[in-house]
Amino acid sequence: MSSTETFSAEGGCACGEVRYRITDRPLFVHGCHCTDCQRHSGGAFAINAMIETDRVELLAGTVKSVAVPTPSGKGQQIQRCPTCNTALWSHYGGAGDKLAFVRAGTLDDNTLLEPDIHIFTRSKQPWVILPEGKPAVEVYYDAKEMMPPESLQRMAALKG
Amino acid sequence: MATPDFVAQGGCTCGVLRYRLDDRPIFVHGCHCTWCQRQSGSALAVNALIETDRLTVLSGEPEEVSIPSPSGKGQIILRCPACRIAMPEYYRATEVMPSASQARMAALQG
Question: What are phi and psi of B108, to 5 degrees?
């Protein structure tokens, strides 16, 4: 069980049709500077809060899943509001739909979700200055080295 | 007049929608408002203002999606009809510049 059961944060899309709540602290928060995330966000980087999908509760509306290609070839399923199309979270990678990458900017109080690590800094926009002391890697990282122990336990439970 | 030496193409993730900017952007915003944070899912949006007639759609048909905005006048986002992504995902800044569009800069890659 998590030791942070009191944590809760709500979010939603731009038109207000979809509302959701995350019921636990994110496992880890990526500031992802890969070119795909730049294109998806239309900004300089994405902020993806990893959390178990069963700890993302839909409060209002439904999400539609839109598949897009990824560099790995395995694809990504982006969950969007069916009306305004705001992207709310994605599923991709080895954990599949058990793991959600919540777009942290869609949280009502997104000050909660400063990235724990910046990844794919090899394609970072040169004018983006990362905070000193914050982990940053050129491509990806070894979870065992970087993630907090509790998050590693939750990840193991997810895969088990 | 368009700047003849400037060329920049962009498109969505699935490749259905491609577009071209035919001139340098008028001005580029790094917008940190909470609306741009929600729409991008990130910390800021990067919006390049350009005359709509200097934004040429090369392939695909963008779909217009209206969403609310703080002013109450709304915003029209143009999205790829297939992947719904940051294609020529621009909005018309109707209050300020009726003929201007704001292209999401990151969609310009590739």
Answer: -80, -15
Q: How far apart are CA B21 and CA B57, in angstroms?
A: 9
Q: What is the CATH number of domain B8-108?
A: 2.170.150.70
Which CATH code, of 3.40.1180.10, 3.90.1590.10, 3.40.50.1100, 3.40.250.10, is assigned to A9-159?
A: 3.90.1590.10
Question: Residue B87 — pLDDT band, cuts 50, 70, 90?
Answer: very low
pLDDT band at B109 (very low <50, low <70, confident <90, very high): very low
Inter-chain residue contact B109 with A15, CB threshold 8 Å: no
Percentage of chain B modeled with pLDDT above 70: 73
Q: Do A40 and B67 touch (CB under 8 A)?
A: no
Q: Is the pLDDT of residue B6 over 90?
A: no
- Full strand arrangement of the beta sheet holding A64-68: A64-68, A76-80, A87-91, A99-103, A46-52, A28-32, A117-119
Residue B42 touches chain A, beta carbons under 8 Å: yes
Comparing CB atoms, the residue among B44, B45, B85 nearest residue A40 is B85
Taking the Cβ of residue A16 and every Cβ of chain B, the question of whether any pair is shorter than 8 Å is answered with yes
* Euclidean distance between CA atoms A114 and A74, whole angstroms: 28
Cβ atoms of residues A150 and A3 within 8 Å: yes
Strand partners, A64: A80
pLDDT of the residue at B100 = 45
pLDDT of residue B88: 38
Q: How sure is the predictor about B14, in pLDDT bands with cuts at 50, 70 and 90? A: confident
- Asked if A48 contacts A36 with a C-beta cutoff of 8 angstroms, the reply is no
So where are chain A's domains? 9-159
Ramachandran region, residue A18 (left: φ > 0; alpha: ψ -120 to 50; beta: rest): beta
